Amino acid sequence: MSSQKLLLLSITYLVCGSQAQADTFADGCASYAGANYGKAKSQFIEAAKAKPKSWQAQYQLANTLLHLQDFQGAKQAYQKCLALKPDPQIKKNCETAIAFILNPPKPRPAVPIEVKNFRGASQDVGVPNATGSTTTSSSDGSHQSDQSDARQLAIDAHKAAIMADAKRQVDSIKEEQQRAVEEANANSNRRWKNRETGERYTGMNGEERSALLREFEAKISRIMDDARRRANQVTTP
């Protein structure tokens, strides 16, 4: 498959985001970024085994297999990624990639273009073919359009990955928030009684709870604002 086709199919933004933990997924991201796809393949396979519900591992494995031109393996990994319900943009990328693998576009035939020479006479202008003679082609514009489409897909995937990483951070903070509320309630010196059931329990009052929640909500707001700012600044794949 040509590099042009790989570009069309490789809507492959590295979804590692800000994950800095020392695991095989992070190692695979580093190998992928360094174009060491053989090593990245092994690392993403291990990451997928360690975290079977990680669509990120399957997505990056598919992208890696694509670079290695293992199209059947890439298709299977994209399908597994879809089964794990990834973010909407990643889902679209997977579907586009699978459709491309199943039905790659056929090469466009060269079509002569008639132009006027400096004397006003008609002549065909072409490009060298395999035999050294020249043929003409009107596909340049189509190729440029394909490149533009692929570039936009990569940019969109880049933006989607930024927002997906922010969402993972927010989900983690929400879990931390819930634990903090439970711990604060358990350690509170305030005693309450449920008017309906008569049950007695300890817990924060409304003001204390609101203050604690505001602290976490401020963190979430900063993360999402920063993610939207960075996504809006993305202009290259």
What does this entry show, briefly?
It contains eight helices and six strands, in the order ααααααββββαββα. By secondary structure, the chain is mainly alpha-helical.
What does this structure look like?
The protein is mainly alpha-helical. It folds into two domains: 3-106, Serine Threonine Protein Phosphatase 5, Tetratricopeptide repeat; 158-232, no CATH class. 62% of the residues lie in helices and 8% in strands. The protein has eight helices and six strands, in the order H-H-H-H-H-H-E-E-E-E-H-E-E-H. It has helices at residues 3-9, 24-33, 37-50, 55-67, 71-83, 88-102, 140-187, 206-232, and strands at residues 113-116, 122-125, 127-128, 134-135, 191-193, 200-202. The chain has a two-stranded antiparallel ribbon. A hairpin with a 5-residue loop joins strand 3 and strand 4 (134-135). The protein is elongated, with a radius of gyration of 27 Å. The model is unreliable at 1-10, 17-22 and 113-139 (pLDDT under 50).
